[in-house]
């Protein structure tokens, strides 16, 4: 098969591993910087052009679209879909996953466990919002943050009021969330491929840090999930319409609660912690599913 890997940087661990796994399994793979593609969207014969030449003959595409380039990146994925190329994750599902509010609404609709969460744009009733999630301590999140940046723990009512007020002044969209203290600064990253959890790790923030993100200096180790955590991860990926997903779960007093669902989960941390060939599992998924008729959306929506 001929497989395109959409990535801005061919030297990234995840990009290299995916390419390696494609080649190891007998496929042809090419890393494509999606920001440098341009497209012919008007013709009956949709085209993508890269480095002066049309991208032809691809069977599958693995999108690794960065959070800051969702708009253009998903347009390129959509163009591949219009060309009947099978994407590991569809453009619509990637867009969905990039909006924390939309994601939580979709998960909630499917009855998946979530921390008690309130949303506000520029509410005047700050105390009402704080009470909605049970008062301080609580977590305040910028809707479009990633890698733990824009996630704040407000330990007192006063701190919560001040932070919400500050964000309101900046016209920022924020989520206010019950603080899951019992998680102790750790979470479970469940790597889902094709409706199965193929690898899982526990991430732990450094001492004094409630955020477990590896980018914030957290550490990770292999973990055994409970059946409930496993099914929560699988159902979450399904609710988002993602074939490949990193589902982050906290262990709360009221069972597993989902933090977020990532559509381009990194491979380095999970492969190091578990020793599992995650890249190989993704390519195996493509082998089983990459059939033009499986390109469900054909770029619609
Ligand atoms: P990001 O997209 O920036 O990673 P997350 O919503 O995943 O934002 O939050 C980052 C980390 O902060 C989580 O992995 C978790 O460890 C911690 N965290 C976030 N929300 C809560 C919460 N409500 N209770 C406890 N810890 C939280
Ligand atoms: Mg996160």
Distance between the termini: 27 Å
- Shape from CA axes? globular
Helical stretch tally: 9
| Total domain units | 3
What structural class is derived from the secondary structure elements?
alpha+beta
Tell me the name of the CATH homologous superfamily of the largest domain.
Answer: ATP-grasp fold, B domain
Largest sheet: 5 strands, antiparallel
Output the helix-strand order.
Answer: EHEEEEEHEHHEHEEHEEEEHEEHH
- Could you estimate the helical fraction of the residues in percent? 25-40%
What is the CATH C level class of the largest domain, in words?
Alpha Beta
Low-pLDDT sequence parts? none
Order of strands across the biggest sheet? 14-13-12-15-16
CATH topology of the largest domain: D-amino Acid Aminotransferase, Chain A, domain 1
Number of strands: 16
Mean pLDDT over the full residue set: 93
Bound molecules: adenosine-5'-diphosphate, magnesium ion
Q: What fraction strand?
A: 25-35%
Q: Gyration radius, to the nearest Å? A: 20 Å
Question: From the 3D coordinates, which CATH architecture of the largest domain would you assign?
Answer: 2-Layer Sandwich
Protein name: Probable alpha-L-glutamate ligase
Binding site for Mn(2+) 2: 260, 262
Cofactor: Mn(2+); Mg(2+)
EC number: 6.3.2.-
Q: Secondary-structure map with pairings?
A:
Elements: E1 2-6, H1 13-24, E2 28-32, E3 37-40, E4 47-50, E5 53-54, E6 60-63, H2 70-82, E7 86-87, H3 91-97, H4 100-109, E8 117-120, H5 126-132, E9 138-142, E10 151-154, H6 157-169, E11 174-178, E12 186-193, E13 196-204, E14 219-222, H7 227-240, E15 244-252, E16 255-262, H8 268-274, H9 278-289
Parallel strand pairs: 1-2, 1-6, 6-7
Antiparallel strand pairs: 3-4, 4-5, 8-11, 9-10, 9-11, 12-13, 12-15, 13-14, 15-16
Helix pairs in contact: 1-9, 2-3
């Amino acid at each position: 098969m001929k497989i395109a890997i959409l990535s801005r940087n061919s030297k990234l661990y995840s990009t290299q591993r995916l390419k390696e796994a494609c080649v190891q399994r007998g496929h042809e793979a090419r890393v494509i910087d999606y920001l440098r593609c341009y497209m012919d969207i008007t013709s009956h014969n949709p085209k993508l052009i890269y480095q002066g030449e049309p991208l032809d003959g691809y069977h599958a595409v693995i999108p690794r679209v960065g959070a800051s380039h969702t708009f253009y990146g998903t347009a390129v994925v959509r163009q591949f879909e219009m060309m009947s190329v099978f994407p590991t994750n569809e453009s619509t599902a990637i867009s969905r996953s990039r909006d924390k509010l939309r994601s939580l609404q979709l998960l909630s609709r499917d009855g998946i466990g979530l921390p008690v969460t309130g949303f506000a744009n520029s509410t005047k009733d700050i105390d009402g919002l704080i009470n909605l999630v049970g008062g301080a301590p609580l977590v305040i999140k910028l809707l479009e943050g990633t890698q733990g940046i824009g996630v704040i723990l407000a330990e007192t009512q006063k701190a919560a009021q001040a932070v919400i007020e500050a964000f309101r002044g900046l016209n920022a969209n924020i989520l206010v969330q019950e603080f899951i203290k019992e998680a102790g600064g750790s979470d479970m990253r469940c790597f889902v491929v094709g409706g199965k959890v193929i690898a899982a790790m526990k991430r732990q923030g450094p001492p004094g840090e409630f955020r477990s993100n590896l980018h914030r200096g957290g550490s990770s180790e292999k973990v055994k999930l409970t059946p409930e955590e496993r099914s929560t991860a699988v159902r979450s990926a399904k609710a988002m319409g993602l074939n490949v997903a990193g589902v982050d779960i906290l262990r709360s007093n009221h069972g597993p609660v989902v933090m977020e669902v990532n559509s381009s989960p990194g491979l380095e941390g999970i492969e190091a912690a578990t020793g599992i060939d995650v890249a190989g599992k993704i390519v195996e998924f493509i082998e089983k599913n990459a059939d033009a008729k499986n390109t469900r959306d054909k770029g619609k929506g």
